[in-house]
Design goal:
single chain; alpha/beta; Rossmann fold; 3 domains; 6-stranded parallel beta sheet; 20 helices; 20 strands; about 35% helix
């Protein structure tokens, strides 16, 4: 083959993996890659972001939305560290992602050269794999492996460092073909064991979550649950894994877990956990399932051997990707008797009752607004959010039917909502995309609306403005009453920010004004932002905030 630069071969490798879009901020350390992209024209869209953190959130959410690795290009040093927030989110949320980071020339190593970093040391704990490509001949090999690692087993982020001299070195290496992910499958013996466990259970519950699901897996999950009258609880910010209209769906187990969901899990005699990590959120800070005394009958199905038995020892351990597991289980004959059917029905009714939030203080009542949105939003809506008390509204008070998508950071990362919304419109401009953001949350990556302006896409953003970092303020008032410090915000005029980006902007100061304002922002061909003036006490539903911890 004709010799090309390492950068040109890298771009050829991306096209072989059917990569059509990547995100990033241009940097001197990978100028050769930008030059190589010039030659492929519209075959690859480089989305020019405003900050590497915003670009990283776009790439992470792209992995969630499409199931394909989100691609991110960042420059060395500051660019890489800015991107770390999205890399950490991709790891905790199990989102496939490949990050290409510029690096100093190999001859300058270990001298603390300009912006020099040891990427293995920096990203090793927060990525599935970190590699530096020193030899242009190895670009096809290591890029192919990066994609393989990112999408196989439990999906996650991979970081690939690109020394400048390697990118301009010549090579005749040939790009590899498109990789096939390694996905373990449930066996017939395992399947029969699961059904046998269900047959003798009196109070089973199906808990689902994690990344790597596809449409077939979601459909099979719903079919299996409904055929066997199983109650389904989803993990934090995973409400779109099963239609919320299903009679099997009874709610979520995350921060601010509803008391009835906590009690339901506590009294269950069989936990059928599919693609679930037993982290702090699901276990309510390990107070719901205490590792010291755990004696539940647990069937744990997961694509990664590292997650099975990590904290709780299962009575039945099955290594399988969630889609294969649910497809196989959904094909089994339904159980003849399900003594828990009434229990599922009662729990379902409790969830439906909880959809109506108590009246909220202040002139703008988010409970009433959510009732309006449930009736107004299209079935295939994409909802995004960052982190904060405000996110409870999108997570708990909307219905996610088949076709709807929730893109929210399970890692509790502020600033994720706006970049995720812009990305979703870039992927499919025809879908309705609605972002929920707090006033503090919005200001972390609100400038990514410049990407929407540049590429002509039109998301809609709701900014819930209460003049404070609400979650932290709530915790201050709980733990240090009368000693509030450092959580108040003096905010800009968010509507003028929207207008500066060519979008429609409007402030809503009363509940009754929301519907008309929302219709106006929907009618805007450039998208828009509604600033909702929320009373400090009304940012999150009063009945659900007691269990919240951290930034979320």
């Amino acid at each position: 083959m004709t010799k090309r630069t390492g950068a040109q071969v890298l771009v050829e490798c991306l096209l072989e993996q059917d990569v059509e879009m990547g995100f990033g901020v241009p940097g001197e350390s990978y100028l050769a890659v930008l030059d190589a992209l010039h030659d492929v024209g519209n075959s690859f869209r480089f989305i020019n972001c405003r900050n590497e953190g915003g670009g990283a959130f776009m790439a992470e959410a792209y992995g969630k939305l499409t199931g394909k690795p989100g691609i991110l290009f960042v420059t060395r040093g500051p660019g890489a560290t800015n991107a770390s927030i999205g890399i950490h989110t991709a790891m905790q949320d199990s989102s496939p992602m490949v990050v290409f980071v510029g690096q100093i020339e190999t001859s300058m190593r270990h001298r603390e050269a300009f912006q020099e970093m040891d990427y293995r040391a920096v990203f090793g704990p927060m990525a599935k794999w970190v590699v530096e490509i020193d030899d242009a001949d190895r670009v096809p090999e290591l890029v192919s492996r990066a994609f393989q690692v990112a999408i196989s087993g439990r999906p996650g982020p991979v970081v690939v460092a690109l020394p400048e001299d390697m990118l301009v070195a010549m090579t005749d290496a040939k790009p590899r073909g498109k990789i096939t992910p390694v996905k373990p499958h449930i066996t017939d013996t395992d399947t029969q064991s699961v059904m046998a466990q269900l047959k003798v259970a009196q109070k089973p519950v199906l808990i689902v979550g994690g990344g790597g699901w596809n449409d077939n897996g979601r459909v099979a999950l719903e079919k299996f649950a409904e055929a066997n009258n199983l109650p389904v609880i989803v993990t934090f910010r995973s409400q779109d894994l099963i239609s919320n209209h299903s009679p099997s769906y009874i709610g979520d187990a995350g921060f601010g877990i509803a008391p009835e969901i906590r009690a339901f899990l506590d009294e269950s005699d069989l936990l059928l956990a599919v693609n679930v990590r037993f982290g702090e959120t699901l276990t309510d800070g390990y107070s719901l399932f205490d590792p010291r005394y755990f004696d539940k009958n647990l069937v744990h199905i997961h694509a990664s051997e590292d997650e099975i038995g990590k904290i709780f020892t299962p009575s039945l351990a099955i290594m399988s990707c969630p889609n294969a597991a649910m497809t196989t289980l959904s094909q089994q004959p339904a159980l003849e008797t399900t003594p828990w059917m009434e229990r599922t029905t009662v729990a379902r009714k409790a969830w439906e009752t909880g959809l109506k939030a108590p009246t909220q203080p202040g002139n703008v009542d988010m409970g009433m607004i959510m009732e309006y949105l449930r009736d107004r939003l299209p079935k295939d809506v994409v909802v995004t959010n960052g982190a904060g008390n405000f996110a409870i509204w999108a997570g708990r008070y909307l219905h996610y039917g088949n076709g709807a998508t929730l893109l929210g950071p399970q890692a509790g990362s502020m600033g994720a909502g706006v970049p995720s919304a812009v990305m979703a419109k870039l992927v499919d401009p025809t879908r309705f995309v609605l972002c929920f953001a707090g006033d503090g949350d919005f200001q972390m990556n609100g400038m990514e609306l410049g990407v929407a302006q540049q590429y002509g896409v039109a998301p809609i953003v709701l900014v819930l403005n209460n003049g404070t970092y609400g979650t932290i303020r709530m915790h201050q008032e709980r733990d240090y009453p009368g000693r509030v410090s450092g959580t108040s915000l003096v905010n800009p005029d968010f509507t003028k920010i929207a207008e500066a980006y060519g979008m429609y902007g409007e402030t809503v100061e009363a509940t009754q004004d929301f519907a008309d304002a929302f219709e106006r922002v929907v009618a805007s061909p450039t998208g828009g932002l509604l600033e909702l003036m929320i009373d400090q006490e009304g940012l999150a539903p009063k009945a659900t905030v007691s269990g919240l911890r951290g930034r979320s």
